[in-house]
Design a protein that fits this description.
Elements lengths: L1 H21 L36 E3 L2 E9 L10 E5 L18 E9 L9 E6 L2 E2 L1 E6 L2 E7 L5 E4 L10 E8 L26 E2 L3 E6 L3 E10 L4 E9 L6 E8 L2 E9 L4 E4 L14 E9 L2 E10 L4 E5 L5 E5 L2 E2 L2 E6 L13 H13 L4 E4 L6 H10 L2 E5 L26 H18 L5 E5 L1 E2 L7 H11 L4 E2 L2 E2 L9 E5 L9 H4 L4 E8 L1 E2 L16 E2 L3 H21 L1 E7 L23 H12 L6
Parallel strand pairs: 23-24, 23-34, 24-25, 25-26, 26-28, 27-29, 30-31, 31-34, 32-33
Antiparallel strand pairs: 1-12, 2-3, 2-4, 4-10, 5-9, 5-12, 6-11, 7-8, 7-10, 13-14, 14-17, 15-16, 15-18, 18-19, 20-21, 21-22
Helix pairs in contact: 2-3, 7-8
């Protein structure tokens, strides 16, 4: 009898899974990547989402099929839903199964019933969102759990008191996103995509998950290396700490504790690492880090993390030109502009394997750096760059555009500051602060970029000085491509298509000289295009061979510029993106236009140039 019941339950569960899968289908209006077919509708992006603060045993991934509806903005909460949406893919994306726009006059509602695992009972239950674009309110069992504004930073709510003792718990999420009709940071999204501006992204676009924690727990950690002092400083934010609570910090190498310190819960630990193993692109060595919250002799909470001993800095070379140094040595930094867009997932990679594939191909091409352009990635992206030795320049997503841009340094002409409203300025400051906080512990990030090409640029000195003060352990590129001021550590020129650099005699004594964008050589490939018309590059070619020949002249020119003072360069770009066809790889990731070995051979020429300090 029991065997018959078990068989029946198995059959019923299989029918349930099949019915669920039938309620969702990929929107096949445009090209997609090979990984679209590998998305598990029942468990998309199932990986643990927070690699710098790990509690493996008490979490539950909530990605999957949720109910959704799009209603007028002024309409109150709804109980009627139009269909299923695959979380965490934005509603406009093919992988969401919806593929619809929302706009400023409508709101997107999600609804999902969950059960809380038995091992979470008796603990605080946190509901985490990796990112939701843009204005979010979350309801649990009909009551508001909290609100959040920001499209690129993670957030969470303590939902413990909103849960019923057993059974289903209902989660509703209300999202409003005006895209470019609002003043908030929104990156490359625009309501009418064209040229370098792309499809809107609305709603949940990173993993949603539950976590159980004790009453007093570690909310976050902050760790900063100092290779000159051979130390790592570690602090922790502790929720509901009591007098006498302590944190125990351990650094491990190869599974063995190499440094340990116990301090008060609100104090900073300073670990001494005498025999330090430095992190670099050629040797991306990571230490393990364990942080425990201790009361008396009992560890109430423990999180696992990691860190790297590395330093990014500036110093003059033998000719007096400021250089960008890694671990007190000159290393020419070279890599692509990387926008992180996907034809099927928009902001969200279809799978972890897809994300990894992109980074691995760039490594194969010989690049040691990526400029993460006008977008923030999920935490696992930065974790993979940490482990694989990729230097990252992190842009702040832009918004509230409209001011004048002067792309020539030292010229008074078209440059103007954006006159932001207090509301707009507040959105920028709040989100940049949260982004920097959430990404601080990833050692691959070496440069912060508050502004790009005057897009919404305002109060440059104030924003740059604040950025440096918040994180003095990294360099700050105040305005990539201008408008140019004398603030920050870097003068960053954009020049298409051929390489150029700021004049070392005029600008090199006080700041690092970089070529923040160049290249953009286009090669449209039929069958791999987002759109049939209006595809473009800064210079288009008919064959990969002719494109590569032109590219080699750029490399040769940079080998001449490096001895003159050039410290880094960023080529546009990793992949084609919508109407742009100037990537090394097609937008659907099905064709690598130039053999990676050939590109790696060219990249090596740049690293071989010697610079005397």
């Amino acid at each position: 009898m029991k065997k018959g019941i078990s068989l029946l339950l198995l059959v019923l569960s299989q029918f349930a899974v099949q019915a669920q899968e039938k309620s969702w289908s990929l929107v096949r209006e445009r090209i997609v990547t090979p990984w679209a077919a590998q998305v598990d509708v029942n468990a998309p992006l199932p990986e643990y989402p927070r690699p710098q603060l790990v509690r493996n045993n008490n979490w539950k991934n909530l990605n999957g099929l949720w109910n959704y509806t799009i209603v007028p903005k002024n309409q109150k909460a709804t109980t009627k839903y139009e269909g299923k949406i695959l979380v965490p893919f934005a509603v406009e994306s093919a992988l969401s199964g919806v593929g619809r726009r929302v706009g400023k006059d409508s709101v997107l509602w999600y609804q999902h019933n969950i059960t809380v695992p038995t091992n979470m009972r008796g603990k605080k239950v946190l509901l985490h969102f990796g990112a939701v674009d843009w204005q979010t309110e979350v309801f649990v069992n009909g009551k508001s759990a909290g609100k959040h504004e920001g499209g690129f930073d993670p957030f969470s709510f303590d939902i413990t008191k909103l849960l019923t003792r057993s059974g289903n718990q209902e989660i509703k999420v209300r999202v409003w996103d005006p895209t470019d009709d609002g003043p908030q940071p929104r990156g490359k999204q625009i309501n009418k995509p064209d040229g370098i501006w792309y499809t809107p992204v609305t709603g949940i676009w990173q993993t949603v998950w539950l976590e159980a924690v004790p009453e007093t727990y570690i909310e976050s950690t902050k760790h900063t290396p100092d290779i000159d002092a051979k130390t790592l400083t570690v602090s922790a934010a502790v929720a509901a700490a009591k007098p006498g609570d302590q944190i125990r910090v351990q650094a491990l190498a190869g599974g063995k504790v190499v440094a340990e310190q116990v301090v008060a819960a609100d104090a900073t630990a300073v670990l001494k690492l005498e025999d330090q193993h430095l992190w670099s692109p050629d040797d991306p060595y990571l230490y393990d880090l364990k942080v425990a919250l201790v009361r008396g002799s009992k560890a109430l909470d423990q999180v696992d993390s990691y860190f790297a001993m590395r330093k990014i800095s500036m110093a003059p070379d033998a000719a007096g030109i400021q250089r960008m140094l890694l671990n007190n040595k000159f290393l020419f930094q070279y890599g692509p502009l990387d926008q992180g867009w996907w034809p099927d997932g928009l902001y969200t990679p279809p799978t972890e394997a897809a994300m990894v594939w992109d980074i691995d191909r760039l490594k194969d091409m010989g690049f040691n750096m990526i400029r993460k352009h006008i977008k923030v990635e999920p935490a696992r992206y930065y974790n993979y760059c940490d482990k694989n030795g990729i230097l990252l320049w992190q842009d702040m997503p832009s918004g509230d555009l409209g001011n004048g841009w002067e792309n020539h340094p030292g010229v008074i002409d078209r440059a103007t500051d954006q006159k932001r409203t207090p509301e707009s300025e507040g959105y920028y400051r709040k989100e940049w602060d949260r982004i920097m906080t959430s990404l601080h512990n990833f050692p691959s990030i070496v440069v912060w970029v508050p502004f790009n090409e005057a897009w919404g640029q305002f109060k440059t000195k104030e924003i740059t000085d604040w950025t440096i003060q918040k994180d003095p352990s990294r360099l700050v590129n105040s305005a990539s491509g201008g408008n140019f001021t004398q603030d920050g550590h870097i003068v960053d020129l954009h020049n298409y298509p051929r390489p150029a650099m700021p004049d070392p005699e005029l600008f090199g004594a006080k700041r690092i000289l970089v070529l923040g964008e160049f290249g953009g050589l286009g090669l449209p490939l039929t069958g791999h295009l987002w759109q049939e018309r209006d595809n473009w590059g800064y210079q288009n070619f008919k064959s990969a061979d002719s494109l590569f020949t032109r590219y080699t002249t750029f490399i040769d020119r940079m080998t001449e510029l490096i001895p003159m003072g050039l410290s880094a360069a960023v080529y546009t770009q990793t992949t084609d993106v919508e109407g742009e066809v100037n990537g090394f790889i097609t937008y659907d990731r099905k064709v690598i236009k130039i053999e990676p070995k050939k590109l790696k051979s060219e990249s090596k020429k740049l690293y071989d140039v010697k610079v005397a300090l």
